[in-house]
Amino acid sequence: MLRKTQLNTVRPNAVRRNFQLGVANGLLFTLGETLLDPTLVLAVFISDLTPSPIWLGLLTPLRDGGWFLPQLWVSGFLQSWPRKIRLYRWVSIVRAVSWILMTLAVLFIRDPVWTLIAFLIPFSISSLASGFSGLPFMEIVGKTVPPRQRGLFFAWRLALGGAASLGGSLLVRWVLGDDSPLQFPYTFGALFAIATVFMILGLAAFSSIAEPEDTSVPPPASFGQQLGRSLAVFKRDENFRHFLYLRIALMIAGSATPFLAVYVQKNLGGSVGMVGIYLATFSAANLIANVLFGRFSMRLGNRNTMGLAAVAGLAMTTLALALILLAAPLGLSGLAASLWLLPVFILSAVRESGLGVAAQSLLLDIAPREDRTIYLGFTNSLLGVVFLATGLSGVVVDLFGYPILLIVTILAHLVGLNSALRMRER
Fold first, then answer.
1. Domain, as residue range, for 53
2. Where are the alpha helices (DSSP H) in 145-185?
3. Domain tally, the chain
């Protein structure tokens, strides 16, 4: 928990300004990421370049795994820095250049194979660079946002971003729809360019936060030392173990989502224009869920919010599996199959909202102030390995089919729900 003495060193006006800048960062990033959504926009883009499901399975792990993976190593030197925002600012330059290169690759390279390669390389670099800014981001939030307001902080970030994303989803529908004035690949190039502008503005907003300087910092530590300390914490803190089981299970449980819209489009005759409708549905449901979860997390706690996210995910994957199994017997195809996915993406929005509001807040809640860097670094690096492993979801689809992957995700949601129920909030 953040010590009151540290909070008291920051003027109330500065606390309010930091809160607002953090929320603005979340708004701009959420809007930009709507235009680069890996489960819808990027999935359709990649499927136009290659028919292999393996690449679709790698999208979310490549984007999110890089954010988590380096953080235990980063924690070793970052813990000795009185101000963590310096690293965030340096890495922001790398991320911005990577997004620009991704956009240029889509706009100017015509061969599908080289487009895929030229897109995925800066995409992966931007993901890995985000991992170097992820730990300073969480440290700064922990230092500048009072503990009882953290769930509200993440809820505001996601809620305002969700509201802006409604407009973004309409833009996606117009750009990718049949009446679009643009042709492939300029459709996606335009979306990527606009997303790049929004996310660069988001980096600038968070870089402007006034971070209080740590008065007492530990010396730098090697990766081996940090790993040893992390394993000791894992062994002695049962609550932390349940948290890790919960996060790992829900990561695995989300691995099927990028395949849903593509499956309906490729196998059941769905229209690519429905991607914009799915995004609008997701964004609207996400907006409402963020407002509700922000209040819920303050009243009943982040652990229960995570449990509700697991329940929503369980319902989502069960409904998606039902579509695949019942499409042929019921003659579902085209518009009917496309409409079936609407409640699936509503439930997906509820699931993602619960995770977005509560996951990081819950970790900050259970991590002692003196060991916060260890808790954050170890958790996020471990989750990065898990995220990369979920890239095998495309291999599972290729070898065993979509139903098997969905069954795996249903079981993972059940494991996550059980872990949430066994946790104790501090």
1. 7-422
2. 150-176
3. 1
